[in-house]
């Protein structure tokens, strides 16, 4: 036979207080009526007895299980977006909740199974997340309870948490404008599909709007725009080579993500040009590669950990429908300078 599990009554008896008072102290609801010494007696008694609250019994009383479902497409196995889970885990732990995580890999049948399994466990709500910021179709099964979309939107009237890509677009552009790049700023990464289809991306259009709004406020336009079939290094490389064939060449380049910027760096190096001595470069995402480039790349960071935290906060505290935009902090490194003399 194992040792008998300590009860709340045992804790109260050892602390010399009523069961109700001990419960309120342990659950943080007692207020200031008791002395600090009495509070310490309760916590010391609980520790001495190895007391653990009966979660199942509490769930029956409160109809809450202190669990949150985190359903994603490929976030869990994506190093870049893993901050979404880290932030949600930290926020859940601070609120005495457990995160149940599943990843669907885009498999609709498995998604239905996973969601049903989590709902069978009476989770208190669902965070429905995407690795790439885009519009999703939300499964009907999770619409009956609290739901927060993370890094995604939908056609439903649901709360969502998104990075503020539009403001970030303006911010990286303003860095270049303040340094004197007005007439020769080029953009690498235009992509009609990403900009026009929200099921593919909602970041591309937002970043472009931010760039254009900052330029319009300064009374200037883009010197050149390069379309890319994808936001990968080889496309940034090819686009930068095209820009360098122009006369005059751009004094600064805005890349729609860090992988494009990586390719642009390679093209500039092959041409015998330096960053930022000849061409300044700014970008988005703060991929780990951004800090390893030489010089380090100035970029607007995706605030994934803060977004994960915000999703848990909205789920547990309630929040208005529609997007909650999380600022993208600027990572200022050494990839920009005043324009070189022409």
Structure notes:
With 342 residues, the protein is an alpha/beta fold. The protein folds into 3 domains: 8-53, lambda repressor-like DNA-binding domains (434 Repressor (Amino-terminal Domain), Orthogonal Bundle), CATH 1.10.260.40; 62-163 and 305-326, Rossmann fold; 165-302, Rossmann fold (3-Layer(aba) Sandwich). The chain has helices spanning 8-15, 19-26, 36-49, 55-62, 82-94, 108-120, 165-178, 192-196, 203-217, 233-244, 258-270, 288-292, 304-317, and strands at 67-72, 98-103, 126-135, 147-153, 159-163, 185-190, 224-227, 252-255, 280-285, 298-301, 322-326, 330-331. The strands form 2 sheets. Strands 2-1-3-4-5-11 form a 6-stranded parallel β-sheet, sandwiched between helices. It has a 6-stranded mixed β-sheet with strand order 7-6-8-9-10-12, with helices on both faces. The termini are far apart. The model has no long low-confidence stretch (mean pLDDT 88). Pfam families: LacI, Peripla_BP_3. Keywords: DNA-binding, Repressor, Transcription, Transcription regulation. InterPro entries: HTH_LacI, LacI/GalR-like_sensor, Lambda_DNA-bd_dom_sf, Peripla_BP_I.
* CATH architecture name of the largest domain: 3-Layer(aba) Sandwich
Per DSSP E runs of 2 or more residues, the count of β-strands stands at 12
Largest sheet: 6 strands, parallel
Classify the beta-strand content into a percent band.
15-25%
What quaternary form is this?
A: single chain
Q: How is the CATH topology of the largest domain named?
A: Rossmann fold
Distance between the termini: 86 Å
- Helix and strand succession? HHHHEHEHEEEHEHHEHEHEHEHEE
Q: How many alpha or pi helices?
A: 13
User: In percent, how helical is the residue content?
Assistant: 40-55%
Low-confidence stretches: none
Give Rg in angstroms: 26 Å
Q: Give the total of domains.
A: 3
Instruction: Report the principal-axis shape.
Output: elongated
Strand order of the biggest β-sheet: 2-1-3-4-5-11
- Decide which structural class fits the backbone: alpha/beta
CATH class of the largest domain: Alpha Beta
**Could you give me the name of the CATH homologous superfamily of the largest domain?**
Response regulator
Q: What's the pLDDT, averaged over the residues?
A: 88
